[in-house]
Amino acid sequence: MKIIQTLYVIAAIGLTGCVAKPPAVPALSANTVSATQSGIIDGSTSLTRLIQQYGVPSRTLWSPQGKQIAVWMQNWTGPQGQQAAQTTQLTALINGEVVERHWVHRYPAGMQNSFLSPDSKLHLNKIITKGVSTETGIIARLGEPRNYLFDDDGNKIMMYVWREPHQVMQGGAMHPRKMNVLLICLDSRNVVKFFNIEQLEGSDGIQSDPGSAFSLDT
Hints:
The protein is α+β, with helices and mostly antiparallel strands. The protein has helices at 2-14, 33-38, 47-54, 135-142, 205-208; strands at 59-62, 68-76, 86-95, 98-108, 147-150, 156-163, 167-168, 174-175, 178-186, 192-201.
């Protein structure tokens, strides 16, 4: 993306009398979150249509009952860096070939959920109450989650991710990077059913161990 933006700046300055074409906006970043959300109809929109519009999913997972969970993620900074980099994510629960449930959200690229650091995660029990806390209330307190998934019933699972700093082992080798992942499972009213914190290894919570989202203690 930086290379494309640099070439655009050079073309705009160096070609007198020519109008440089700005880089194309990725499809998932082209509209507002609400417009993208409303443009997909649960029970009607097909997976084929989503692939045609947004490309191949960035991640593909499978629920215990065999439903596909397709996740698209795109970063965009705007032409010539006119806005801060943002990540837009679309998560869709696919039953057969049809979208059963979907959710779109957007957050600052590279966002870290630092409240999951070891010295603060014990306080989450004071913030999240099963059967009481709501999705909007959690976002108001903790910010946007890094990822969303779905369970087999189409209920949303919020995923907050915090990467621990790299640790150098004896001899200079890098110790595998650990992640703390907070999984919050919601019910059909978007009220917290239960939540759990797990520690994984890898680059993000849904790539390293997708099955962990479905093995929580209730």
